[in-house]
UniProtKB/TrEMBL annotation, chains A, B:
Family the UniProt entry places it in: Belongs to the serine/threonine dehydratase family.
One example GO MF annotation: pyridoxal phosphate binding
Species this protein is from: Vitis vinifera
Domain Tryptophan synthase beta chain-like PALP: 28-319
Protein name: Serine racemase
Domain of life: Eukaryota
The keyword Hydrolase is annotated on this UniProt entry: no
Amino acid sequence: MEAENEIRSKRYAADISSIREAQVRINSFIHKTPVLTSETLNSLAGRGLFFKCECFQKGGAFKFRGACNAIFSLDDEQAAKGVVTHSSGNHAAALSLAAKLRGIPAYIVIPENAPRCKVENVIRYGGQVIWSRATMQSREDIATRVLQETGAVLLHPYNDGRIISGQGTVSLELLEQAPQIDTIMVPISGGGLISGVALAAKSINPSIRVFAAEPKGANDAAQSKNAGRIITLPETNTIADGLRASLGDLTWPVVRDLVDDIIVVEDKEIIEAMKLCYEILKVAVEPSGAIGLAAVLSDSFKKNPAWKNCRNVGIVLSGGNVDLGVLWDSLGK
Amino acid sequence: MEAENEIRSKRYAADISSIREAQVRINSFIHKTPVLTSETLNSLAGRGLFFKCECFQKGGAFKFRGACNAIFSLDDEQAAKGVVTHSSGNHAAALSLAAKLRGIPAYIVIPENAPRCKVENVIRYGGQVIWSRATMQSREDIATRVLQETGAVLLHPYNDGRIISGQGTVSLELLEQAPQIDTIMVPISGGGLISGVALAAKSINPSIRVFAAEPKGANDAAQSKNAGRIITLPETNTIADGLRASLGDLTWPVVRDLVDDIIVVEDKEIIEAMKLCYEILKVAVEPSGAIGLAAVLSDSFKKNPAWKNCRNVGIVLSGGNVDLGVLWDSLGK
């Protein structure tokens, strides 16, 4: 009940109204991604699974929803100066593409260790790449300099109400496409996707469970949930390159209040789930994209009696931008 | 006009009525597979492309449509004795699954060189594997023996009106999902899929162009079309293991009369198209499944002035059953 009251009192950076507005705003630009099912994977999980394939979204990830919502929310004068972001890749590609659609420049600060295919996506969509070192400090410093030089608007990858609202449209579509869903499993990194998904889903149906899936080597969200405050990690170590960010002050309250549990999985479980996505579902996902399946198949979720009645689980396959070479190495030929 | 009259006079093993009946018969068993689009691939092709993702079909390929239609067409007495086939794999898995749904045995004669994942699919779906040598003669001999011993019904992978009618439902769905399509590109092997697709599409709209995509190392259909009679090859050599069969006496007349042209591509073009499917479309296809994209991107199609007005092309991604190891070797790390 506390959670529902909180949603109603709009103490968060987004709510069901801003998410519905986002849906109207971005609807003609995005792909309505399909929901796939597999009886083989249902058998493995012991539940019904509904895969929301955001890897088929434009730019190869759900990030295009938030980027589109943010960019088309700007007034003309703001927009004309362009947008800036620093990102490990998917948000950057998404922002480049949305900016191109609006006809404005996108300045993208990218760390030198970003995956090749994510950088290629930025370039393909017309983003202007500005390299930084791999540290968050270097990324932020360079972004600040670009902001000063251009007067562009900084669009944070997740700690922004417009971004969270855009990502929340995943929930609206998913619950329309598979209304039997009683549970949603979402990858967690900075918390933009899961915040939007949880705010929308719990407003539509407060009994829906929302879980986060997080890699053990970057389990800051699980630690934060336990500690009751934002914990950041000095370093992360996971194959899921898209899940290394820390919660923001706008996403943390949603994660704290509305996410039922955080399921932490090992990299080897992520790799196994990726393999199942390729071999059974025939969908090319990146490691971060496969983690929801890994979580649903993990012992900590399967054997937890509290989640026994999660019968129909929506799993967000959040992205598909993976270098084939990296994929192969991780599958350990 | 000749083609249309022929369709109307029902000189073929299937027609629009039998295909619509198949759709009603199999509708509750199959996946209605999504149609994906990519502006990046549209740019590469210089046309609008609409990817009908039969790799997401149950069993990982379109074959389940035909198998389901054939098996649910049998009367109870026939069905009880089971079904037999010899197949390189996708038809076998499809038949096993359809038989399981009807609760009857499926005896599957598989050549010893079939891809591992295709054999695993047969076993997963409860088919009874009976090994043969790699030659067509050995496959047929062993199938005949099984028929005699069990009284089961032989279901040929493609040279059967019920199978052709089932495969034709791909056309019905595709044209409903993307009505702007003026052209359909279909992989060709034994001709079951393209016969069903062409019969349905040209009955619905005689101006739709239907093309076959065929690997150079197994180009019997192109040779047959040139010669005006069925040509079989002494041996085939292509990475597209699903496209090595020869036309049958029921599929050949449809290919002869209703297929506008056969686009022959090199294996290296197939591999490049597979890579695009993985990296851009995020769909895991087998080599045979990617050949339609290879054909659309080939010079012989792109530069042919006769096909310049093929603006919106439906491409059937026919299957996704590929061993990850084989995939990687073919992508030539």
